[in-house]
Specification:
By secondary structure, this protein is mainly α. Helix content is about 75%, strand content about 0%. Helix 4 crosses helix 7, helix 5 crosses helix 8 and helix 17 packs antiparallel against helix 18.
Length: about 450
């Protein structure tokens, strides 16, 4: 059987490679005026197949997310090797949108699996972890910037420090989901700390941008950013928690079908993501907040899954005790988790988009410069150490898991660096070194986290 599966996998890889080269000729023949939306149809096929091939790394004991990121890096190499059809995908608005939706869906799923009470228990620890996870990388980034790039201005060093404060929590939580440990207290601390990271990171970025563009430190602008962040976070939990059940009941009056049961939480997720965006926060925070707010109890008035109804009407009346009690418990559990089941097909499509595109954003040419590599490795060491110290303030949990869960920078670090590059503060060489750091932390985190989670070590 394994030989048969391996043969099928080889044929699938060969088919993808053949399609890449044949499609390159077709696009070249059609001219440069082809619509991006139609090009994206081909890119989606390649990304999805690459993600599935990459996820085969699970057979080696590694989380699928690592394989998806590596698949993206391979596609990046293929694009540089001459498959020019893939190159526009780096700047494609369509593919960036699909990848962004992938992070939104992923964090929404994590929120659905969590609850507000769980976060209240770790609230203060998450705040301390998030604050420490910003302070040490920020200071470390400034110091290492002065050492590596002494000819640059202090603004460039501050920008490097700001870049190191970011945390791409989507990578870590995907590992937790893959390994089925989403309910651990470390996950709640990491997610809560990531919110603090985002707020403080946005504040630092705004301050640095103000210094660069105007040369003036604007306390008023900083206060506005902090105020909007607090309003969103408090409003999402307090106000959103009151609106969500009302929305669920109002929509159920129109229809209590499974279609409506899917539409209401999904729309609520994107609504809070949009509100977070216009509040200058990452949309994934809104998505996570939506999942956190939505209690499965709100949707009891909607129809249960069809299989549950059939078992209740056609099987349950003929089952005696104690099997009947156990069967009712199983059916209730499936009924409560029905929303998660409905959302899962969205995740199958969108989530791999994010991780493959994260890998695809890596520019392999950055490895050709020894100075860039040296600078990238030193920045990586500072970036990792600055987040690992957060484990020591996380309380009685597995400190290493918390620390490593905060390590990946992913697309968040690249966004910060891109802003500096656009302002002319960060040089191309420094940007390449930051890219090395982003790639290294993105690749090492799934490996280390999966190893830590599989170890039978007690929580500290």
């Amino acid at each position: 059987m394994r030989t048969y599966i391996d043969r099928r996998l080889r044929w699938l890889i060969a088919a993808v490679v053949a399609m890449l080269f044949s499609t390159t000729d077709a696009i070249a023949a059609s001219g440069a005026g082809s619509e991006e939306i139609f090009l994206a149809l081909g890119w989606i096929v390649v990304v999805l197949l690459a993600a599935r091939i990459g996820s085969a790394i699970e057979r080696l004991g590694q989380p699928p997310v690592l394989g998806e990121i590596l698949a993206g890096i391979v596609l990046s190499g293929v694009a540089m090797a001459g498959v020019h059809w893939l190159e526009p995908m780096r700047t494609s608005v369509v593919m960036k949108f699909l990848a962004e939706v992938g992070t939104i869906v992923l964090l929404f799923q994590i929120g659905l699996e969590s609850n507000v009470e769980q976060f209240r228990k770790v609230g203060m620890r998450a705040f301390i972890v998030g604050t420490v996870g910003v302070f040490f990388p920020f200071i470390g980034g400034i110091l290492v910037g002065q050492y590596l790039f002494p000819e640059q201005s202090i603004n460039a060093h501050i920008f490097l420090g700001a870049t190191l404060t970011a945390t791409s929590v989507g990578i870590s939580v995907r590992v937790f989901r893959d390994l089925g440990v989403g309910a651990r207290p470390e996950v709640s601390i990491i997610l809560g700390a990531a919110v603090i990271d985002d707020v403080l990171g946005v504040v630092i970025l705004a301050v640095v941008q103000g210094l660069v563009t105007t040369g003036v430190f604007d306390w008023w602008n900083v206060a506005i950013i902090i105020g909007k962040s607090l309003i969103f976070l408090i409003g999402a939990i307090v106000v959103g928690g009151r609106i969500a059940p009302l929305l669920a009941r109002w929509m159920a009056y129109l229809s209590n079908s499974t279609t409506m049961k899917f539409a209401v939480p999904t729309a609520f997720c994107f609504l809070l993501s949009y509100i977070a965006y216009i509040d200058d926060l990452a949309p994934i925070i809104g998505a996570f907040g939506a999942g956190l707010i939505l209690d499965q109890v709100y949707f009891n008035i909607y129809r249960a899954p069809e299989i549950v109804e059939k078992i209740e009407h056609e099987v349950l009346p003929y089952v005696g005790e104690p099997s009947r009690t156990r069967l009712v418990e199983i059916l209730d559990q499936y009924r409560l988790h029905h929303i998660e089941e409905l959302i899962q097909p969205l995740a199958y499509f969108f989530v791999p988009m994010f991780f493959v595109m994260t890998g695809f954003s890596v520019d392999l040419r950055t490895f050709t410069s020894l100075h860039v590599l040296w600078a990238g490795m030193l920045i990586t060491a500072v970036a990792v150490a600055g987040k690992l110290v957060t484990g020591f303030v996380a309380g009685r949990v597995h400190r290493s898991i918390v620390g490593w869960g905060m390590v990946p920078r992913g697309e968040v670090g690249l966004i910060f660096a891109s802003v500096g590059l656009g302002l002319g503060v960060v040089t191309a060489e420094e940007y390449s070194a930051i890219m090395v750091m982003v790639m290294t932390t993105t690749l090492m985190t799934p490996l280390v986290l999966s190893w830590l989670l599989r170890r039978k070590t007690p929580a500290m």
